[in-house]
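Hey, quick one: can you model this chain's 3D structure?
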Amino acid sequence: MGQGKRRRVIAGNWKMYKTQAEARAFFAAFVPLVRGARRCDIVVAPPFTAIAAAVEAAQGSNIAIGAQDVFWEKEGAFTGEISAPMLVEAGCRYVIIGHSERRQFFGETSESVAKKTKAALAVGLTPIVCVGELLEHREAGRTEEICELQFTGGPGALTTEEFSRILLAYEPVWAIGTGKTATPEIAAAVHRFLRKCAQRKFTAEQAQALRILYGGSVKPDNIQGFVNARLDEMGSCAGRGICVYRPWMAALRFALVFVAVAHVFCGELLIPDHCGAVAERQGRGYSGRLRRRRQPDGVWPARSGNGAFARDYLVRGDVHGLRAGSGAAHG
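Sure thing. Here's the predicted structure for all 331 residues.
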């Protein structure tokens, strides 16, 4: 399968944010914005306690719900753990495994990543398997060595058939919650290396079909750089909300939808606007009447408000939107 045939994925990791009520409010605003996005898969991974609310709120939409972790046993005396069958019953279709924060704070290992991945695949979940190096490894020039070790011990331990059903994510620990972000060039170099690892372990066809994400301190003010980067492949993950896979932007229309989705996951609501206009909220709530006003390129506060949306913004690239101040759309 060639690069051009790999289907795009946008997957938001909420980490330890949002109650059930906040999740419902988020989806009430988010679902209408992505209803027309048919050229990519959209995944949201809320905390365990909000999964049921998220599944209910996203029902009938093009949004799939995932979990942030899983245990490899089906059941047993494992206090605090959640099994793969439980996630499926709750309505999950994806699960994040081996996230850098799980490795850094909770002792996740390549062995446990492999066991969790196999358990997830056994019940039909799609694993998003993460790899990534520490800052000390990066500074010592050991990025490829560490990523290869994690790949070999984790996804590399799968069978050929199992490997064909996973997604891979490059999540450098040094870029998680530190404000440091890998450039598109750095991320693309590691992506290419991981694809080579996949080719050595499996086949060239499977390596090319593999979908790879990037995650690490991606925010609304830098996501545009990843979207615009014309590299082999690119992806990004905001600290509170987005993993993005993007091998290529085929058209401006999809790019606008992509940016809108990215900003929503990062805590903003954006609506594609091909007229270069800025929306000003009039009335109350998201359904309030919108008045357009032309502005030159740039970002300006349009007006102050209250309720769900605190400020309105014009964003470069013929996209305008409503920035969430708190609550409903704060990711």
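One thing worth noting: The two ends are 34 Å apart (CA to CA).
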